[in-house]
Amino acid sequence: MRLLSLKGSKMQKYGVKRGLEKNLEHSQLKALVEEIFGKASEEEGKIVASYGALNKLITWPEGKNLCVETQMKTDVSNEVASDTIRTYNTFLEKATGFTSKQRSKRLQDKAKKGSG
C-alpha cells in the first residue's frame, strides 16, 4: 500500500488554538479548504487541493495538530506567488486561529526549547 506523499514536498505541523479543534474535523477541514482554495478532493483520508503556485496541498488532522504537505510550482510569476502566499496564510489562520506572525513566534519558541 503506497502512502500518499509528495516527492520534493515539505510537511509542516501546526498547533490549533484552544476552542478551534472543531476545524480539524474532516468535514470542517474539507469545507475550509474548498472555501479558500476552491475545489478539493480526498485521497487516503486526506484532503487534497491545488491553487496558484501550490502544485498540490495535502492536509489532515493529527491529534490536536493540523498537518499540511505542500509541493510548489517554481515557474510562476511574482503576482501568482504573492497571491498564493496570502491565500495559504489565510487558510492557516482560519484553520489554526494563529496569524502568520504568531505561528512564526511559536516555531521560534519551540526551536529555542529544543536547542536549550
Provide a descriptive summary of the structure in words:
There is one protein chain. With about 120 residues, the protein is an alpha+beta fold. It has one domain: TATA-Binding Protein. The chain contains three helices and five strands. Strands 1-5-4-3-2 form a five-stranded antiparallel β-sheet, with helices on one face. Strand 2 and strand 3 (about 45-50) form a beta hairpin. The longest helix is centred in the last third of the chain and has 19 residues, at about 80-95. It is globular.
CATH architecture: 2-Layer Sandwich
Global morphology: globular
Classify the fold: give the CATH topology: TATA-Binding Protein
Strand fraction: 25-35%
Sheet with the most strands, sense and barrel status: 5 strands, antiparallel
Number of helices: 3
Chain oligomer state? single chain
Number of strands: 5
Q: What's the CATH class label?
A: Alpha Beta
Question: What's the rounded overall pLDDT mean?
Answer: 88
Helix content: 40-55%
Low-confidence stretches: none
Following the backbone from N to C, one meets helices and strands in this order, namely EHEEEEHH
Question: Topology, pairings included?
Answer:
Blueprint: E1 10-15, H1 26-37, E2 41-43, E3 46-51, E4 54-62, E5 65-72, H2 78-96, H3 100-115
Antiparallel strand pairs: 1-5, 2-3, 3-4, 4-5
Helix pairs in contact: 1-2
